[in-house]
Design brief:
The complex is a heterodimer of chains A (109) and B (117).
Chain A (H helix, E strand, L loop, with lengths): L2 E3 L3 E5 L4 E8 L6 E6 L6 E6 L3 E5 L2 E6 L4 E6 L8 E8 L5 E3 L3 E6 L1
Chain B lengths: L3 E4 L2 E4 L4 E8 L5 E7 L6 E7 L2 E5 L6 E7 L2 E7 L7 E8 L12 E2 L3 E5 L1
Parallel strand pairs in B: 2-11
Antiparallel strand pairs in B: 1-3, 3-8, 4-5, 4-9, 5-6, 7-8, 9-10, 9-11
The chains are: A mainly beta (109), B mainly beta (117).
Chain lengths: 109, 117
């Protein structure tokens, strides 16, 4: 079966750095996406990785290791507005998105 | 215009009602999607339209009926829903459903929060 695992909830302090991990087992691999979703709102795209390595975009970076079936999202200089759920999704060999359950990130002052 | 517009934003309906959710995009995207999302759960794919043809139907009950009148519009017709169908219904679009380099991200609408009484 296909499976995406990520922690259910994480807590971090404003101004700090947090890393949200995602491991996956899917039928084929055509890329991994990270989305941010605030409560009651639609997901918004953060990053896409298809090759191994680190992709940096401002305060957010995403890393991928295909051999390990592993990715992480790194958030730096945390702000209160970063409190949200972060969804990891993998595109399988049929180009369908397999979604993780999401990680709820709580930022404390 | 990089938006996916969904209407209405909120909908309350009884189990005998018939209603429709609407979705519109003007980005020239050829793939459009309906997702259902329960609180604290990831989005669940319901339907995918590619070039205005239904390409994926994820075993969704017939009380949900999708329609794609043209390349910019996607509707979801609702009839005889159950209370457990209450959820956030998200429309999304992408350039293509498949491709050699699937770099196209999904653009999501803001969703319709549906409550079935």
């Amino acid at each position: 079966g296909q499976n995406i695992d990520q922690p259910t909830e994480m807590t971090a302090t404003e101004g700090a750095i947090v890393q949200i991990n995602c491991t996956y087992q899917t039928s084929g691999f055509n890329g991994l996406f990270w989305y941010q979703q605030h409560a009651g709102e639609a997901p918004t795209f953060l990053s896409y990785n298809v090759l191994d390595g680190l992709e940096e975009k401002g305060r957010f970076s995403s890393f991928l290791s295909r051999s390990k079936g592993y990715s992480y999202l790194l958030l730096k200089e945390l702000q209160m507005k970063d409190s949200a759920s972060y969804l990891c999704a993998v595109m399988d060999s049929n180009y369908q998105l397999i979604w993780g359950a999401g990680t709820k990130l709580i930022i404390k002052p | 215009d990089t938006e996916v517009t969904q209407t209405p934003k909120h909908l309350v309906m009884g189990m005998t009602n018939k209603k429709s959710l609407k979705c519109e995009q003007h980005m020239g995207h050829r793939a459009m999607y309906w997702y259902k999302q329960k609180a604290k759960k990831p989005p669940e794919l319901m339907f995918v339209y590619s070039y205005e043809k239904l390409s994926i139907n994820e075993s969704v009950p017939s009380r949900f009926s999708p329609e794609c009148p043209n390349s910019s519009l996607l509707n979801l017709h609702l009839h005889a829903l159950q209370p457990e169908d209450s959820a956030l219904y998200l429309c999304a679009s992408s350039q293509e459903i498949q491709g050699p380099i699937p770099t196209e991200k999904l653009f999501f609408g803001s969703g319709t929060q549906l409550s079935v009484l």
